[in-house]
Amino acid sequence: MRTLVLGGIRSGKSRWAEDAIAGALPAGQPVCYLAPGPTGTGDAAWADRVAEHRDRRPGHWSTVETDDIARQLRGSPHTPTLVDDLGAWLTGMLDRHDGWDGGPVPAAVRDTIESTLAAVGAFHSTLVLVSPEVGLTVVPAT
């Protein structure tokens, strides 16, 4: 099963995605919660949100904070996985590769997106992807 969860900022996407993947699996089955958002930025509000999300998840779920979604999916193709969220992942990539100048998308960004799409296509287990939907809410403070 592959599910794409879209919604506005702070609209309950993460909780809905958590419930969806938990409901699709036998009770107690491990889930990898893949968090590709900003890490090590010193943003206290972001750290608080990450902690809040982690605290409400079952203890048998693991959390992996990485920007390399493709590698994680390829490395654990049979582990049910929730990716939250693709918007933060793409923003971070554009930041790292100076992709905001209005020119062509940097090759590194294109290559990473293509690699990630291939990994999603080859993934063998339940996969839930979360992404903000542009235009549904205002830009959050964090």
Which bin fits the share of residues in helices?
A: 40-55%
- Spatial gap, N to C terminus: 31 Å
DSSP, total strands: 5
Residue fraction in strands: 15-25%
Radius of gyration, in angstroms, nearest whole number: 15 Å
Largest sheet: 5 strands, parallel
User: In the CATH hierarchy, what is the class?
Assistant: Alpha Beta
The total of helices stands at 5
Tally of individual domains: 1
- Report the CATH architecture: 3-Layer(aba) Sandwich
CATH superfamily: P-loop containing nucleotide triphosphate hydrolases
The neighbouring-strand order within the major sheet is: 1-5-4-2-3
Shape: globular
Helix/strand class = alpha/beta
Order of helices and strands: EHEHEHEHHE
CATH fold-type name: Rossmann fold
Helix-strand blueprint:
Elements: E1 2-7, H1 13-23, E2 31-35, H2 44-56, E3 61-65, H3 69-75, E4 81-84, H4 86-96, H5 107-122, E5 127-132
Parallel strand pairs: 1-5, 2-3, 2-4, 4-5
Helix pairs in contact: 3-5
